[in-house]
Structures are given as structure tokens and as C-alpha cells.
Write a structure and sequence with these properties.
Layout (H helix, E strand, L loop, with lengths): L8 H25 L9 H13 L2 E2 H7 L4 H13 L3 E6 L2 E9 L1 H22 L4 H16 L2
Antiparallel strand pairs: 1-3, 2-3
Helix pairs in contact: 1-5, 2-5, 3-4
């Protein structure tokens, strides 16, 4: 394969590591998200349901930060989940700025059905790494994420 960019050794090493990280992340996400489509959920919708199921009601801003989405994108995701009766918005007190997202009983039922399979798929693909490698990967990702 032809290489067009010739930079410093540090740049080539960093770019190579970045490409490998991105490809690995895309592969893992595609594998683990494959079970969401039959449930009629996008990865973002699943992330919202999973967060509300495991954490409880959250302010929309907190929810957006938790699932790494913009508030504009989250609004659309919550709108669609609300249309399907899986999530509802509630005002928090008298302040109209603070809206809580809560999971409905139908949302709880759906996430309870699909989460175990999702966790199994994550475990299956991560089993390509031994336990020590999984710990090392987690530590490296945490270190990389804190630097951004």
C-alpha cells in the first residue's frame, strides 16, 4: 500500500496507533451493536435506555454527557424513544430548564430483555484479549481519554 504522508517518526507512530484504535473500536461496536437492530433501537437509543435503566432518571444535559452525545442529538433520540413509549420527560420542580428523562415500564422491559445478550456479545469479543490485556487496555484507554 502506498504511503503518501511522510512525517516525523512520532507522527507516523501516532497516526498508525490511531488508525488501529479506530478500526478496533469500529469492529467492536459493529459486533456488539448487531443485536440492537432487531429490537428497533439505534446505538444512541440503546445508550439512553441503558443509562436510565442502570442509573435512574437523569437531567437531559447529564444524560447527554453520560452517553457522549450533543444536547441537540439527544433531543432527537429522546423524542423518538418517547414516541415509542420507552422514555418520558418530566419537569424537575418549577424550573422549566431542568427536564428529567425517565424510563417507562415498557422501556425497562425492553432493556431488561436485550441487555444480557448485549453484555454477552461484549464479553465474547473482548475474550480475544486475556484478562490482563483487558485490564491493560482499559488503563490505556482511560489514560488516553483523560488527556483529551
Amino acid at each position: 500500500m502506498a504511503v503518501k504522508f511522510k512525517g516525523e517518526a512520532a507522527e507516523e507512530r501516532a497516526l498508525g496507533a490511531f488508525v488501529k484504535l479506530a478500526r478496533a473500536a469500529n469492529t467492536v461496536l459493529a459486533y456488539t451493536n448487531a443485536n440492537l437492530e432487531p429490537a428497533g433501537l439505534s446505538p444512541s437509543q440503546f445508550a439512553v435506555l441503558e443509562a436510565l435503566y442502570h442509573v435512574g432518571p437523569l437531567r437531559l444535559g447529564d444524560l447527554a454527557r453520560r452517553i457522549l452525545k450533543s444536547s441537540g442529538n439527544l433531543t432527537l433520540v429522546v423524542d423518538n424513544l418517547e414516541k415509542h413509549g420507552l422514555v418520558q420527560r418530566r419537569k424537575q420542580g418549577n424550573d422549566k430548564r431542568f427536564i428529567l428523562a425517565t424510563i417507562t415500564p415498557a422501556g425497562e422491559k425492553l432493556i431488561a430483555e436485550i441487555f444480557p445478550g448485549h453484555a454477552r456479545r461484549i464479553t465474547q469479543i473482548m475474550d480475544r484479549l486475556n484478562p490482563a490485556e483487558q485490564e491493560q487496555l482499559g488503563a490505556l484507554c482511560r489514560k488516553l481519554g483523560k488527556g483529551a
